[in-house]
């Protein structure tokens, strides 16, 4: 962070989805700043889910309080939000393999956003809502880059290529963010600041992370990608940098609008290659590209959204995102990509995710 942020700590803040991968680092930033964090969770008594957050609070200047709430239960955020000036809404499922996209992705994303923001409308203390959206609300496939004005994804662009049938996760993030803007523009008491991260990587504070990012990196070390990794382009950001971005989005007075939070434009093979110097002798890190024709043949059998339409519209195509607004307006800085990958991979080794080859 290249600028000092003045943070008023007298009022609490609320973080939905506080036990999640991204939210954990947001909570840490808030606690280290001396804030009281209200964390609405499904079961506050589930020690396996919340103990790591209690430990973060114990080692910080701040405090954490847990509340029982459910994303789709209207009114369940009332107690947690009471007295809060800033609300962080991070809770939204990130899954690729789903049987019912509407029920598993769109409903939680859209109805959950509506539930939280309408509660903000009923809570007079709220001054700002920070929404964790995604670059998935800006684009659906790398091929979409061809239709951008200057060959780069910017905050002015919206995803128009995703649907329930194609890239349903991206579709869920798009409709949820649009709903947030609709609710925000219909009132004048609180302002909405949106964070649009690219693919999030880096170590987790949660001892049992479930993000798709970990499933992706696991394939680099367990032999799944031994034959090669596709040149599937995307942007990535370190989860620790993303946590700082949320802090800035909440407390930089002039913050407004959407912000692409993206540290690096890269692809799957390049990420894997960053692991080779340190881990290549002990783990089957893919050193070469998997040809598109091969992926075309085996991809649909592998699942994970690897349809032939997705392959044709993403593999061997670059991803380019413009992160200048976040750097300029939020004072963001991004750590080296190799640091993020090595820290994440080492943590997975330490947790026994895979054994040495």
UniProtKB/TrEMBL annotation:
The keyword Hydrolase does not apply. InterPro entries: Epimerase_deHydtase (IPR001509), NAD(P)-bd_dom_sf (IPR036291), NAD(P)_dehydrat-like (IPR050425). Residues 13-251 form the NAD-dependent epimerase/dehydratase domain. It holds the Pfam family Epimerase. Keywords: Oxidoreductase. PANTHER family: NAD DEPENDENT EPIMERASE/DEHYDRATASE, VPS9 DOMAIN-CONTAINING PROTEIN. This is NAD-dependent epimerase/dehydratase family protein.
């Amino acid at each position: 962070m290249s600028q000092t942020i003045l943070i008023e700590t007298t009022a609490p803040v609320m973080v939905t989805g506080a036990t999640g991968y991204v939210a954990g680092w947001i909570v840490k930033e808030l606690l280290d700043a001396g804030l009281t964090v209200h964390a609405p969770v499904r079961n506050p008594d589930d020690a396996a889910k919340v103990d790591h957050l209690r430990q973060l609070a114990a080692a910080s200047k701040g405090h954490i309080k847990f509340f029982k709430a459910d994303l789709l239960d209207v009114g369940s955020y009332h107690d947690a939000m009471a007295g809060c000036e800033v609300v962080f809404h991070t809770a939204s499922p990130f899954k690729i393999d789903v049987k019912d996209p509407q029920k598993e992705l769109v409903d939680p994303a859209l109805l959950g956003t509506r539930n939280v923001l309408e509660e903000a409308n009923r809570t007079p203390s709220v001054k700002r809502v920070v929404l964790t959206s995604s670059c998935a609300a800006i684009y659906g496939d790398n091929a979409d880059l061809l239709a951008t004005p200057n060959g780069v994804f910017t905050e002015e662009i919206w995803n128009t290529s995703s649907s329930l049938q194609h890239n349903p996760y991206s579709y869920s993030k798009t409709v949820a963010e649009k709903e947030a803007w609709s609710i925000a523009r219909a009132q004048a008491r609180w302002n909405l600041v949106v964070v649009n991260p690219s693919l999030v990587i880096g170590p987790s504070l949660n001892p049992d992370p479930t993000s798709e990012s970990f499933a992706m990196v696991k394939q680099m070390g367990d032999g799944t990608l031994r034959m090669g990794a596709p040149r599937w382009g995307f942007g990535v950001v370190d989860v620790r940098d993303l946590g700082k971005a949320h802090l800035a989005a909440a407390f930089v007075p002039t913050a407004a609008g959407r912000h692409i939070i993206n540290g690096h434009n890269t692809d799957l093979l390049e990420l894997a290659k960053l692991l080779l110097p340190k881990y290549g002798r002990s783990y089957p890190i893919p050193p070469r590209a998997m040809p598109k024709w091969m992926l075309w043949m085996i991809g649909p059998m592998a699942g994970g959204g690897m349809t032939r339409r997705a392959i044709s519209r993403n593999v061997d195509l670059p991803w380019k995102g413009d992160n200048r607004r976040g750097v300029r307006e939020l004072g963001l800085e991004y750590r080296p990509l190799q640091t993020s990958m090595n820290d994440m991979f080492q943590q997975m080794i330490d947790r026994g995710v895979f054994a040495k080859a």
